[in-house]
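User: Quick sanity check before I run a bigger batch. Here is a single chain. Can you write out its predicted 3D structure?
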Amino acid sequence: MRKGAIGAATVASLWLMLLSAAWSQNVNGTPEVASVAGGDAAATSNNDPAFKTHYPRYQLVAGDTLDLQFEYSPEFNQTLTIQPDGYITLRDIGDVHVEGKTVPEVTDMLRDRYAKILSSPSIAVVVKDFEKPYFTASGQVGRPGHYVLHGETTVTEALAMAGGLTDKSKHSQVVLFRRVSSQWTEAKVLNVKKMLNAKDLQEDLFIHPGDMLFVPQNNMSKIARFIPSSGVTAYMNPASF
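Assistant: Done. Predicted structure follows.
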């Protein structure tokens, strides 16, 4: 009995060590990095069926138009356009930098600023005109460029919007890039050729705003699942394949 108890304690200790190591890795922010072979993308989907989704709040950019509505002080209502330098000029407050911020962040900022001249201001910020959601198609497609997203659009539909695939395309290794944070972009290799030949579109992922599709000409043996966002353009450069 004592021998069995010692064995159980040893196993429990090992589990605690493993959990501690995993927790430490998460705390340090070290991303999981996995290599996915282009030809085996469909085969690995059972182990990794869900491409990481990311639903960030819209970040304001220059040219966006904001409608500010004051519930108890309508005389302060105003419509403003974000200037090229990222600032808006508020009535009785002055310049405030809002580019790169979300609507909730701007709302909190304006409440703090107007609280200096108004009592408990209630402010609603509405984006009246903003950059339309789009995706980018590059590489061996008929018309590379940016395309506006209208409703739900899958990878194959996005490729069709971009003029379809060229004769030189390696459509068994189409790469879908998706930003998952301000520093990291996730890459998924999709076997579009197999999907179309098998008439099985279960792997036909939906495009999200900001996604980038790259159709290579030559074989891509491996691609890291997570790469620095600043390095995505290097992957999309045909000379690198």
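Residues 2-27 form the longest helix (26 residues).

User: Great, the batch can go ahead then.
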